[in-house]
Amino acid sequence: MSTNKETKRNMRYPKEECGVFGIWGHPDAAKISYFGLFALQHRGQESAGIVTSDEKEVHAYKSMGLVSEVFTERRLNDLKGHISIGHVRYSTTGSSIIQNAQPFCVRHAGCTIAIAHNGNLVNSKTLKNELENQGSIFQTTMDSEVIVHLLARSWKFGLEEAIINTMSFIKGSYSLVLLTEDKIIGIRDPYGIRPLCIGKLNDSYMLTSETCALDLIQAEYVRDVNPGEVVIIDKNGLHSFTALKSQKCANCIFEFIYFARPDSNIFGRNVYNFRKGLGEQMAKDFTFQGDFVLPFPDSGNYAAVGFAQASKIPLELAVIRNHYVGRTFIQPGQHMREFAVRVKLNPVKDMIRGKRIIIVDDSIVRGTTSKNRINAIKAAGAKEIDMLVSCPPIKYPCYYGIDFPSESELIAHNKTENDIKEYLGLDNLKYMSVEALLKVAGENSEDRFCLACFTGKYPIHIDEKMEKLALEKI
Fold this sequence. Notes:
By secondary structure, the protein is α+β, with helices and mostly antiparallel strands. It has 2 domains: about 5-250, Glutamine Phosphoribosylpyrophosphate, subunit 1, domain 1 (4-Layer Sandwich), CATH 3.60.20.10; about 270-445, Rossmann fold (3-Layer(aba) Sandwich), CATH 3.40.50. It is about 30% helix and about 25% strand. It contains 18 helices and 23 strands. A 7-stranded antiparallel beta sheet has the order 3-2-4-1-10-9-11. It has a 6-stranded antiparallel beta sheet with strand order 5-6-7-8-12-13, with helices on one face. A 4-stranded parallel beta sheet has the order 17-20-21-22, with helices on both faces. The chain starts with a helix and ends with a helix.
């Protein structure tokens, strides 16, 4: 697990664990994976890796950093083969170190198994303890390695049976892309928590977290991998089977609110239109008066467009984002207060001075970043500041791949809307309700989406005693 220091350092915004990509049947598989990962960079900025195969030899390279920093033309040329999987990572389980970078690759019984994992297993600690008690040796602190050990234990029964056995033990969220010497495999948990889809480029098949990766390489979207489905792609084409029957769909609603790129389609919906719909819904629910609507870029942009158009209040981009700020920068002296906020976002003072402003943002997690941003708007001379948040209050941690902190660190867990308004120094604050969110999400959305971070109702229950007993029988 990440240390408390790591969690606090990284919790300016909610973080996604990772993005995955795979391709079979392309002569430049490594380069296609590179561009696919480049499109998925928003899902993880700590490390990147690619594994390739020509059906005889497997090649791998991974390192800490962004995709463009990790891979050079020379490194990509060394990754030979027409089969490839790739991964970009942000750590929610396991520290941010090179040993935990993915794809994770092992040799077992004369066969290579490489895995790229998006999600988080909620019973990984129990399974790891039991596996270690039975002699397994772990190289990393990732929950993804548990999956590899379980696959290896059942490998003698064949690939499909090994996958079915493994899926019967692991609980939580997982969209997986696996590579062996001659095939790639896509696997999605029976709740469908994280996205995973299939694409096609001429005779090549792809698996990826989001459709924006397909758009970049001009591939065709085929369909989503269904919850509980296993997709196998090899020289015989694509075939699939249902390994675990889906009992309840629990797509992560926060993929729509924050994580997925706005040009992606996930869970059957376009992300841009969904976020815009959130803003339109807020215009129906809340009557705010102001001189203009101000999004906090970039995550608040699309809900702000919807709210401004529906409310007939002008939209102004009066906070400018610096797009050239890297993951780290030289820390300023103590006298330069709020530098970390201003280095990325800077208000246009001449636009803001003396104005009544309606801020739109996608979420408030701990509240410290929002407070600093609002202070910057005040310092620029705003007359009045109201704020709309295009999701309900985040009150509970996520155990399925989003690095929300503990309940004590979530500002909405023990504070009312009015308390948060006072803390942030706002004139007015309104959150979207769960009911309004579900209205935007569409028919039967309460049965399709995981809302646990808002409601505390988690879709996956774990009986650790039963997990231990079942594992002993393998």
